[in-house]
Write a structure and sequence with these properties.
heterodimer; A: Anaerobic Ribonucleotide-triphosphate Reductase Large Chain; 2 domains; twelve-stranded mixed beta sheet; two-stranded antiparallel ribbon; 15 helices; B: alpha+beta; Alpha-Beta Plaits; four-stranded antiparallel beta sheet; 4 strands
Chain lengths: 450, 89
């Protein structure tokens, strides 16, 4: 029989420490849905998503019940829509189609209203990016992302400038709904093609026709594990994180295999990310504070996060041979109770967050900024973040929410998984001339690394 | 297929009997039981086999939680594989 202690440990993790499968995301290729007629293309898209994802939610619920592990979200990601809409135009009609499919299948987000423009704009890409604010204001479940740079190509600064305007416009168009549109829009550098987490999920062009990707989470479990070794040194801390990440990932691997088998599609990857939620006890900031920091954001935070992020990956790769996606620790400010507290008391600033993104798994995530922040400043923040990703060969992303009508120190609340938090201070000096230059920042050299 | 039933709650007369009764009604075979009380807290882990069961594991889970709620117990029913995959390499 299985060891009694092991059984109780698993149950304790699920019932008291918020261990869950954060998402089962079905990636669906839409490459066979192109047409010169937008209506025909949309009906093909709708038909394909319905056919593939029809049973996703019931199967997810079935597994949840049988294994006794909560599966919080069931989602769909699709091929970047800009590729499909290029030959027929009218990208917004695709967003409306995705929304309809999301409602019919019962998934809680559908990602892939995306464009990949890291080296330049292909036919239709510029019109597509311009359509994002309207698409996100007309839909509730559609998520959008744009990849504007990579280590291999450099950074497309024209796209960066456009995205600064797009983020702001999206917030303005959804101002009556807490600017929520901007919370569903991610600007990437080195975007992964198999990420199951929203809002940045899309199904890369090199992926199979249909796959199941699973995202596991469990900041609460790691936090509780570290509480057991208050006097351990960093070797002990790293070891404890690794062991915990291993166990969490094993569950993700089991669920992914089972879901893929029942749905008759291939198993893509397990993404072992520590994804916080606003629930108390499900915070990445608390893990960093448990390591000995008085408040997240103080000196030492970057080092603590680097250790955490690396140990999570090490534990995870041992547990599954199919680790992919973003894998690491997320630091979304409004979704993390500890980060919110740290930002409110002034310990966590956007500059420190930027430093933290050089060692975490993604980037500047879910940060409310003053509503009157110029589009060029938003673009410059995106450029800074993309530069960190480009030079360090890692994924970085920006998901800023300009809080229209609010200023520094006010609060912006979304509710649910997206949480809420204080509007943070932005450097008031202008970056306008820098952004207006346009063009491309060349790809970085891969040797002489100092 | 095997499942693990765990029962936690305040110790009282007849907890084991109530859980086994639900198993018996549905032709679920109990193959191992371990139980202890620490101070006033009752803790039982039961391994059951469901091959000849008349209900699915999901339905057994519902039946157990329903009975648990009535008696102030937290009962969970989980597929054995979740423990195997988490604690065995």
């Amino acid at each position: 029989m299985i060891n009694r202690r092991d059984i109780l440990e698993t149950i304790h993790m699920i019932q008291d420490e918020n261990l869950d499968i954060r998402t089962i995301t079905m990636g669906i290729s839409l490459l066979d849905c192109c047409s010169q007629d937008p209506k025909e293309a949309c009906s093909k898209v709708y038909e394909k998503i319905m056919r593939k994802a029809e049973r996703l939610v019931p199967v997810g619920e079935e597994i949840e019940k049988e294994y006794g592990i909560p599966i919080v979200n069931k989602r769909v990601s699709v091929t970047p829509v800009s590729i499909i809409s290029a030959s027929c135009g009218d990208p917004v009609s695709f967003a409306v189609t995705l929304e309809k499919a999301a409602r019919e299948t019962g998934v809680n987000f559908i990602g892939g209203y995306s464009a990949l423009v890291q080296k330049g704009f292909a036919a239709g890409d510029e019109d597509f990016i311009k359509s994002i604010p309207e698409a996100l204001s007309l839909t509730e479940h559609v998520c959008s992302s744009v990849n504007i740079g990579s280590t291999k190509t450099g950074i497309n600064m024209d796209a960066v400038a456009m995205m600064g305007r797009t983020v702001k416009r999206t917030a303005e168009m959804t101002r009556d709904n807490n600017c929520i549109g901007a919370a569903k829009l991610v600007v990437f550098c080195n975007a992964p093609e198999d990420n199951p987490f929203m809002a940045g999920a899309f199904h890369g062009a090199g992926e199979p026709d249909c796959v199941i990707n699973v995202g596991v989470s469990g900041p609460g479990v790691v936090h509780s594990a570290l509480k057991k070794i208050p006097d351990g040194d960093f070797t002990d801390v790293s070891d404890m994180v690794k062991r915990t990440a291993f166990k969490i990932t094993r569950i993700g691997n089991l669920v992914a295999k089972e879901a893929a088998k029942r749905l008759g599609v291939s198993f893509g990857i397990v993404d072992l990310s520590l994804a916080p939620t606003p629930a108390v006890g499900d915070s990445v900031a608390y893990i960093l504070e448990e390591m000995g920091l008085e408040k997240c954001g103080t000196h030492g935070t970057t080092a603590a996060l680097a250790l955490l992020n690396d140990a999570v990956k090490k534990g995870g790769v041992m547990a599954s041979s199919r680790v992919g996606g973003l894998s690491g620790a997320f630091i979304p400010v409004t979704e993390d109770a500890g980060m919110i507290a740290a930002a409110e008391c002034g310990s966590l600033t956007i500059e420190k967050l930027e430093a933290m993104t050089s060692v975490c798994s993604v980037g500047l995530d879910m940060i409310a900024i003053p509503g009157d922040t110029p589009a060029e400043t938003i673009a410059a923040i995106i450029a800074d973040e993309a530069a960190i990703g480009m030079i360090n060969s890692k994924t970085t992303a920006v998901r800023l929410v300009p809080a229209i009508g609010k200023k520094e120190g006010d609060r912006l609340d979304f509710g649910g998984l997206l949480g809420g938090g204080p509007v943070m201070r932005i450097n008031p000096m202008s970056s306008r001339r820098f952004i207006e230059r346009g063009g491309r920042i060349p790809a970085p050299i891969q040797s002489l690394k100092n | 297929m095997k499942a693990v039933i765990t029962v936690l709650g305040k110790d009282a007369v007849g907890i084991l009997a109530k859980v086994s009764a639900v198993c018996a009604e549905n032709n679920v075979n109990i193959i191992d039981v371990s139980q202890s009380t620490l101070r006033d807290i009752f803790c039982m882990i039961m391994m059951v086999e469901m091959d000849k069961s008349t209900i699915t594991i999901g339905e057994l889970s519902d039946a157990m939680s329903f009975m648990g709620k009535k008696n102030g117990l937290v009962i969970s029913v989980m597929h054995e594989d979740i423990f195997n995959s988490m604690h065995r390499i």
